[in-house]
Specification:
Length: 307
């Protein structure tokens, strides 16, 4: 089992995305515009939330022959949420079988034993994780995805490398949390000025103790989940961060290794917050361009009367 630090990183990411960002088969493919998206909140014609969706964006070489390859290189960015419906992870598991390699995130040594599907994490982090999944009626990614599949390749920093990256940047969990708090508070105040306020106590009381609590809580979190600008402002930009920029760089080093080994259809399976940086790097460093996107439903946000 990965150590406590490994689960702490995933729990931190899940909470960051859930607080601020942050089943069904894939929808039909559609053309990708210049700016791609990795999370969306689908709504009906009455503007009621239907689902929180993640995307698979496919990137291709313009001409494979220029690189001396008979087959074009294809790299898919598979944006994930660390909490999701069981059907969501079953769909991903099925799709992953078609790749030559699936590069996955996990701050752990390369030889770490990843939990098999169905195994529950233990300890304080595991208890917190189980509480959050139960409150939302969702599943936890590490317990549902089959990381033991032969085509799964670890593509992340080790705990020691992550600590060194934070130290080099003068970062700590506390400084990253405070930076995120400042960005989140600033955007919340701005949004409140436009809408006239946030969720009131009466509304929150009704959600916590009323009917359909799980779905109503999901709806509140999904509204914030898709606000990726908070994470981009806090951890992206020119300065970057150890949490996103340095870990993405490690993943792309593994991508280069897999390409050199002859792999042609590769998935990068990382949290959705990492994807904007990956998009930039694939375009600039690998000369890959987005071709099309598929959407997968991660959270069902439909109230029973709407089904």
């Amino acid at each position: 089992m990965p150590n406590l630090r490994t689960f702490a990183v995933h729990a931190c990411q899940a909470l960051l995305l859930a607080w601020f960002a942050t089943a069904a088969p894939p929808a039909f493919s559609q053309a990708v515009a210049e700016k791609v998206e990795f999370l969306r909140l689908s709504r009906d014609d009455r503007d009621a939330p239907l689902s929180l969706d993640t995307s698979i964006v496919r990137y291709r070489e313009a001409a494979a022959t220029d690189q001396g390859r008979r087959e074009p290189l294809e790299v898919d960015l598979v944006g994930a949420v660390h909490l999701g419906g069981k059907g969501y992870y079953e769909t991903l598991d099925r799709l992953f079988r078609d790749y030559d390699a699936v590069l996955y995130e996990l701050v752990a040594p390369d030889n770490a034993r990843v939990p098999k599907p169905g195994r529950k994490a233990s300890g304080a982090i595991g208890s917190a994780q189980q509480g959050l999944t139960k409150m939302l009626g969702l599943e936890f990614q590490l317990e549902q995805i089959d990381y033991t599949a032969k085509n799964f390749v670890h593509a992340d920093l080790s705990p020691q490398e992550f600590d060194a990256a934070m130290a080099k940047r003068g970062e700590s969990w506390w400084t990253m949390f405070m930076k995120l708090m400042r960005e989140g508070t600033a955007r919340a105040e701005k949004a409140a000025g436009k809408t006239g306020g946030d969720v009131g106590f009466g509304d929150l009381f009704g959600i916590l103790f009323g009917s359909n609590r799980e779905i109503r809580l999901r709806r509140i979190m999904a509204e914030q989940f898709t606000d990726m600008e908070v994470l981009t402002a806090a951890f992206g930009g020119e300065e970057g961060s150890s949490l996103i920029t340095d870990r993405n760089a490690a993943a792309l080093d593994v991508l280069r290794q897999q390409i050199a080994a002859g792999k042609r259809k590769i998935a990068i399976f990382y949290g959705a917050a990492h994807m904007n940086d990956f998009d930039t790097r694939l375009r600039e460093d690998f000369q890959l361009e987005p071709a099309e996107t598929d959407w997968i439903e991660a959270w069902d946000l439909r109230l029973p009367v709407e089904k």
